[in-house]
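Hello,

Our lab assistant flagged a job as stuck in the queue for most of the afternoon. It eventually completed. Since we weren't sure the result was trustworthy after the delay, we are filing this so someone can double-check. Below is the sequence as submitted and the structure that was eventually returned. Let us know if re-running is recommended.
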Amino acid sequence: MNNLTGKRVLITRPRAQAAALIERLTALEAVPVVFPTIEISALEDTNLLDLSIANLNTYHWVIFTSVNGVSAFWQRLDALGKGNDVFTGIQIAAIGPATAHALVEKGVKPNFAPDEHVAEAILPGMGDVRGLRVLLPRAEIARKALVEALQNQGAFPEEIAVYRTLPAHPDVQALSELEKGVDVATFTSSSTVQNFFNLLGGRALDLLKEAVIACIGPITAETARELGLAVDIVAEDYTVDGLIEALLNHNPKNSARKIL
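-- returned structure --
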């Protein structure tokens, strides 16, 4: 028996990406409460992305910041009939082990992945980037911290949208399950937190007032705190496995709420 047995755990990530978390929680005899707050959508207009792919050899670095970015980029490569040889002579960086793994699965080994899985941590390992063109295939709306950090180091970063993060619309049954209460609420991106509040408005804090709040990383946790949540758990490894490990290792002495 573990401290998650029988506990109701809220999952807010996109339904299409929730399978691994649901599987892990179920194996630990927890009760997943699936209430997706965002969904990932392909771009309607890919002209700019296609142009970037056509001119990929003009960039010195390509930085992938998420699994979604990798997936969307390769969808366009496949649609355009192009292969991994488009990356010949280009350095590739990945933020986070899941992103690096996604690249390896596509047959591309990143040249660099920082130990700390946040965007700003990538710069020291890239070396001197002055005068270099850097392509950032990202969500349509993304944090500007990495772009600004690259600019401050003299690089020429270019963001290109490769997918969209849209608000989800959970069904009546999902809302009903949430209203029964949860023991733990998990958030796997800032967007999942923001859209939880967008969907539920003033009810959001009340629905989670007794729940342990667990975030996949410091950026997500910062968003949660800004919206009024008292964050109890921040995974050290910013992956689903890291989040599960953090839940299992949670020490209730370190927070006002406890899972047990």
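-- support follow-up --
The delay was a queue issue, not a problem with the job. The result is valid. The chain has a mean pLDDT of 89. The longest strand covers residues 156-167.
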